[in-house]
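Pipeline run #58 for the internal structure catalog. This entry was flagged by the ingest filter as a single-chain record with no existing model, so it goes straight to prediction. Upstream metadata was stripped on purpose; only the residue string is passed forward. Reviewer on rotation: M.T. Logging verbosity set to normal.
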Amino acid sequence: MYKLVCIAGMPGAGKSVVSDYFVTRGFQFLRFGQVVLDIIKENNLPPTENNERKIREDLRKSRGMSAIAILNYPKFKTLLKKGNVVGDGLYSWSEYKFLKEKFDKQLIVISVYAPPSLRYERLSKRVIPKSDKDLRHRPFTKEEAKARDYAEIENLEKGGPIAMADYTLVNTKSLAYLMREVRQIYAKILRLRNHEMQKQKLYS
């Protein structure tokens, strides 16, 4: 049974770094918020925090609080037929419950934490590389980042998946330290999947 590893955390915590590690280990990649940026591109809007927030909240008003997960569900389902998947940016409690209901033991959630001051510093120093067509690494001012934090916590139930994560990474030290922690979690997930496969063979 292939695994869907979803990465949760506030902006600037280090979700993309963790997701990218799983990609290097052969996981297929899907970014939750890409559906929002795709709508922004389709409507020729600038990728500002105000525009993103409006689209995120409009989607949830029209489709419910699990909207982003529902929109990504067919993609996750297709990818899981071929192999393990990492989902970058699990947002709301409703999305967590939706995915848990659909994928059950296939779903593993990793929370990445860093305090606001450190996250805001990271976000303000971001530079968008030319290769970043999906705008994963766009910068935010401190004011934009704080506004996004409040909106995600108050309007998008973002604390739920972070609190209920299977694993939590505290990203306040060096990149090398974070990578050591990520490798340990990856090894645990691999052992879990191998154990499940052995059980399947035993009872098949």
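catalog note: The chain has one domain: 4-203.
catalog note: The chain has a mean pLDDT of 91.
status: ready for reviewer M.T.
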